[in-house]
Amino acid sequence: MATDNPATHDPATDAQLAAIDAWWRAANYLSVGQLYLRQNALLRRPLQNQDIKRRLLGHWGTTPGLTFVYAHLNRVITDRDQDVLLVAGPGHGGPALVASTWLEGSYSEIYGAVSRDEAGMELLVRQFSYPGGIPSHAAPETPGSINEGGELGYSLAHGFGAVLDNPGLVAAVVIGDGEAETGALSASWDAHVFVDPHRDGAVLPILHLNGWKIANPTVLARMPQDQLERRMRGHGYEPFFVTVDDPDAVDVAHRDFAATLDACLDRIAGIQAHARGGTSASADTAEDEARREPWPMIVLRSPKGWTGPTEVDGKPVEGTWRAHQIPLPVSPDDDAAREALTAWMRSYRPEDLFDDDGRPRPQLTALSPVGDRRLGATPFANGGRLLAPLRLPPVTPVAADVPEPGRQRNSPMLTLGSWLAEVIRANPETFRLFGPDETASNRLQHVYEATDKAWNARLLPVDENLAPDGRVIEVLSEHLCQGLLEGYLLTGRHGVFDCYEAFVHIVDSMFNQHAKWLKVHQRLPWRQPIASFTYLLSSHVWQQDHNGFSHQDPGFIDHAVNKSADVVRVYLPPDTNTLLSTMDHCLRSTDRINIVVSGKQPSLTWLGPEDAAHHCARGLGVWEFAGTERAGEKPDVVLACAGDVPTTETVAAAQLLAHHVPDLSVRVVNVVDLMRLIDDRSHPHGLSAADFDGIFTEDRPVIFAYHGYASLIHRLTYKRTNHAGMHVRGYHEEGTTTTPFDMALLNGIDRYQLAIDAIDRVPALHGTQTVLRQRLQDAQLAARAYTREVGEDPDHITDWSLAADPVL
Amino acid sequence: MATDNPATHDPATDAQLAAIDAWWRAANYLSVGQLYLRQNALLRRPLQNQDIKRRLLGHWGTTPGLTFVYAHLNRVITDRDQDVLLVAGPGHGGPALVASTWLEGSYSEIYGAVSRDEAGMELLVRQFSYPGGIPSHAAPETPGSINEGGELGYSLAHGFGAVLDNPGLVAAVVIGDGEAETGALSASWDAHVFVDPHRDGAVLPILHLNGWKIANPTVLARMPQDQLERRMRGHGYEPFFVTVDDPDAVDVAHRDFAATLDACLDRIAGIQAHARGGTSASADTAEDEARREPWPMIVLRSPKGWTGPTEVDGKPVEGTWRAHQIPLPVSPDDDAAREALTAWMRSYRPEDLFDDDGRPRPQLTALSPVGDRRLGATPFANGGRLLAPLRLPPVTPVAADVPEPGRQRNSPMLTLGSWLAEVIRANPETFRLFGPDETASNRLQHVYEATDKAWNARLLPVDENLAPDGRVIEVLSEHLCQGLLEGYLLTGRHGVFDCYEAFVHIVDSMFNQHAKWLKVHQRLPWRQPIASFTYLLSSHVWQQDHNGFSHQDPGFIDHAVNKSADVVRVYLPPDTNTLLSTMDHCLRSTDRINIVVSGKQPSLTWLGPEDAAHHCARGLGVWEFAGTERAGEKPDVVLACAGDVPTTETVAAAQLLAHHVPDLSVRVVNVVDLMRLIDDRSHPHGLSAADFDGIFTEDRPVIFAYHGYASLIHRLTYKRTNHAGMHVRGYHEEGTTTTPFDMALLNGIDRYQLAIDAIDRVPALHGTQTVLRQRLQDAQLAARAYTREVGEDPDHITDWSLAADPVL
């Protein structure tokens, strides 16, 4: 189909192409220097033993491809006055990006010591992959990066997340052909279905086929060209091929790539102009269908280690896997190897590229864009510079009214959905919700009163809540949800990822990488705080009666707490109003990863909005309404809980005890912020020893009912005075398809068991409660038998509330 | 290209199609019964309140598609005398598979009470998604399943794993269009690149486009047909489309699908005949290229919830997302709803399908294959029936010779590679190695002396170790590696997945599902033991000098130990010979998940082959050669270690103490089998309290240097007498690109720190060692400063061995 093209540009001139080539050579020269040299970066004198790094730790293979793309992007950014974000997906592209940002000046503006002159160049080469220096892949330390290239597979999702709600931005995403084999990357091609050309920017994927991974050919590079073209068209793109058959025909390659880049950007501009000229969110028509033209993408086929050694020891290197890491082994004492390295570096003609002071010559600096348009300086890669706090509506209008604790039921997630609808309304361009087809299943469907689900594909009359400009993105790939939200946050916006609790493990490794990124990012003064990543986990382990054992796993919390205390927060709000307060807090926070776990089924509401806010602010507290403490006396036993189902069972257990052992002094403690359990010397949210002992006592038995695996509570309270008194109940991998209360029974976290635990552990009761103990056990058996026969929980369990008489 | 076709078959007869339709109606009838009924499965009397389940927990949407495919496969299995494994990828296909296996008789043979008559049918419908019953998706309890459909995305990888080395097997893999959006599934299409038509069987993917996920349209269903065709061709398949436009035109659908199935199986037979007629593992030629014909696949487009209610409450249901779960709400007291349900069930004409005793009529039973050819009875779905133990060569020929402990260096992984080469030679059809492009990077390259890497795509002259029949599969997708090995093991073979330690988190969730599967599988007497899944993790946290912080994460062990003690084993062999012994043990084990962590760099070898075997058999032990204990006396301090780098640092610390504090009695304990730390009442590998106290003492300080996060050691020893004496050092998320010893320093696990810890914790030394303490701290600072200046670790660290004098 034809595209209106309002923005064709003049082709690159010979002078521009010459500048691009010079720029590329300079970046390659500096990259080789980083791999090999401790000093003598300008080769002022013949390379000596002490000039060579003792350990050669870097990757050459992908470097010349990345510098090639970087050099060419410089031209089009300036020519078109275009914001571009470069996402460098291939592994270990560090030297390319560091060299390039140094050339354009953005590196030295951030790291003053690494100045854009010979002294800075000496530091530049030495610091790379050197103890106390910088990593070999793009990292938080790398200007212009939004988390790419360490663990592989997330570049395309990050690029798509970046362009959402940034209509003027083009994300040029270089995708390595190794990376392209990963699951996350494979699932990301479809993300354009959620991009609205009217309101969002565009991603330009640049699939870089250099043919090899560490030691193997890549699948995409070895498939016939016509198959690859079908594949890309099948993903919804129009592929433009640039193939470098002859490594020496550099001029041809530059001209080809420049023309292709122009053609692609023209095509993008055309699609956007077309979409922006019309209406975007209309119902589906044949015209709308026609408007969904394929986005352009580039397939750049170039030799791995291009411009590096052709052969070493008689074996081909350039264009093979042998160029992946250090293509030319250079031990410091090997004269011949040092000479070969010198010849390689001199092949870039450094004297033409740098002046006597080591500064890039004007031909190079003239090519670079200026100011924030530089790829290393763009605020889109330092999203905190663009971050504006959310406009957060009050939670009180949607909060549950609680005249008395534990009398009425509300669905926490359903209520939260009403508030999130208001958040979406108040922040129509800076907040989004992401979920793997589970937003309604997680009971957040009220958000669809304020917005739709983004969908820029065919619509049918039967469809509901789908529109190109929807604020909710639903795709059955947790990887893509996570990657899109990361890209969205890293470019200065806000959002939430809602997910089934068990299946968030699918992104464990992406969580790791984001947590590690945030930890380093926090320590860099030039990186501005970004909005926190908030996981909203529902359909949790205790509410999987539809799904059973495969859907029961509360271990994401355990996984998360291994990461830095400066980053990770875990919240287990026990009811509707505490969930609202928790989410309000999370959406105000920056530079954190918040994990919020909440049930979706109607459950008892314990605290009114004000009490809930107060409770959440403290993170944990004694619930006097639920206990039987006498003022001024230490309780006989503490019943503690974290998580909604454990809270209900704990309060019920306390009521059983109050009824049957009225003299027993029981304290009930509820924990919302799990990090409060840690000592304040180990975690910023930690409780002091005195405060902890004041709440949990120094010596009374604590029966702790916990949402997840019990060991985590032991871990967090390991250094507490009363840790020996902690008796923790949690999920211990006993699950099947059954009712919620049967799940509690199976895992020994039910009210009867908690009461038995208390009786067993209070010394004064030893041996005195055999009748009650037996009755509690009988009640367990009876509940189980009823459930198995009738197929649902007994009424006295499901109808129970704090107002009801305790029933055995 | 033309395909020789040795195996065209007669098209389905009208009688066959009628039988297929009857079979399909019966399976659908029984599926609806499972969703709704507690009893009265044959509708003997009008449905009453008590006949309806109190909680309707199941999924109708995908069911009729699965039963449709199942019915049709029955015919071709018999007609062609063909082994077929059905992998049912879509979520919640449980009712379809249970109904189908009951119809063919395989269900009742396993679960005798659920007999193939009315009494059995009553149990059949009631047990589904019922407390104490069976799950709503395919599960270990489901005959014919190899782990599919709980968490989504693994069906295609499982199917490919199943057909490797099974030349006579066709795996028909039904892929849900929701599932198809996941990362793992997206990455799995390419797996045919590793299939050798000469030696392996074939996968027939059946992409089932029913159009909807839980609440959203699917991406693949909404893309134009020509784009979808390009996509499948781009993945290397020839798609055959069967489209059900009119839900009522059932006859057309049956005829179409039967003909398409025949065409696909003919095509598969042709490809295989072609490949098997020629040579398979030859070098690449134009002819070879021509031989790589695309494999056939089917795109079945049919309405979600086909044959279910068309409309409910005026809203379309069949063919929409509303059919996903329970399409027709039926509360027990609602007469009209019960009537609607009755009408729906009667629409399948049960009287034509079941005789008066509730048995399937002969028309149905005649369609089913017999014996092990039935999809629910095939041994390929109960792999233990096919399992033969590996022929394991002795490890001694490759083991390191150790005249004295800690004198010489070996690379554990390099040595292991030599042994694995022998394992491959001895088991040329039942053992495979899988890795994400890291087998050589993990130093297992000696395996290529025995085999190649599987590669059935274009070959270039520069290629090494690639061949269609290679026993190593390398693809840069941890998901695909894991999924292929799962499929290979579940069908009765053996293998190992080698992976960078940090990035194995990518498959955390797949690990969960496999661990859960094994736990349930172990409890089912009819499921025979299968070979264990062995993770071989290298390039670990302490050896990431190339890669830095993003590649440092030892948390997979923490993740794993949350799963059942009956399944999970963790081994941290400290050197080459213990690694060999550990792997020998793991490859003999069944029904476990073994996690083995080992370094790849040359490191000190401590134990000769016999001592290593003895040490590994005990799982942990006192290393007398490393300590300074006096016979008959309790030591002053215990230095314990687990992991290769911590072991070296611990032995070095002991030597420092022996030199500088010669009177101190130091015991050194090395732990290989981490589960030994647990109490024997909690884990089958656990140590008794007496044995544990004998080794770790009841009251002496224990300085424990651990490979991963320290909290795990506290967790495992939580109930031990001396747990308060445990002082654990491990990785605490301090990492960057630096030398190995600098990493130890950063995380406080270096020899100097361990010696300081010991001095600080032995009461008798309090205040007496200030000079030594200061010297140890100075040594830390000096090592760090040297590393930062010179770029490598000091010689006295890298050259140190047990024979060397300790140097500060």
From TrEMBL, chains A, B:
Domain Xylulose 5-phosphate/Fructose 6-phosphate phosphoketolase N-terminal: 13-385
GO biological processes: carbohydrate metabolic process
Superkingdom: Bacteria
Keyword set, alphabetical order: Lyase, Thiamine pyrophosphate
GO molecular function terms listed in the Swiss-Prot or TrEMBL record: aldehyde-lyase activity; magnesium ion binding
Limits of the Xylulose 5-phosphate/Fructose 6-phosphate phosphoketolase C-terminal domain: 600-801
InterPro entries registered for this protein in UniProt: THDP-binding (IPR029061), Transketo_C/PFOR_II (IPR009014), Xul5P/Fru6P_PKetolase (IPR005593), Xul5P/Fru6P_PKetolase_C (IPR018969), Xul5P/Fru6P_PKetolase_CS (IPR019790), Xul5P/Fru6P_PKetolase_N (IPR018970), Xul5P/Fru6P_PKetolase_ThDP_BS (IPR019789)
Pfam short name (any one): XFP
Keyword RNA-binding set for record: no
TM annotation in the entry: none
Obligatory cofactor(s): thiamine diphosphate
Record Gene3D superfamilies: 3.40.50.920, 3.40.50.970
Family membership: Belongs to the XFP family.
Protein name: Phosphoketolase
Organism field: Tersicoccus phoenicis
Taxonomic placement: Bacteria, Bacillati, Actinomycetota, Actinomycetes, Micrococcales
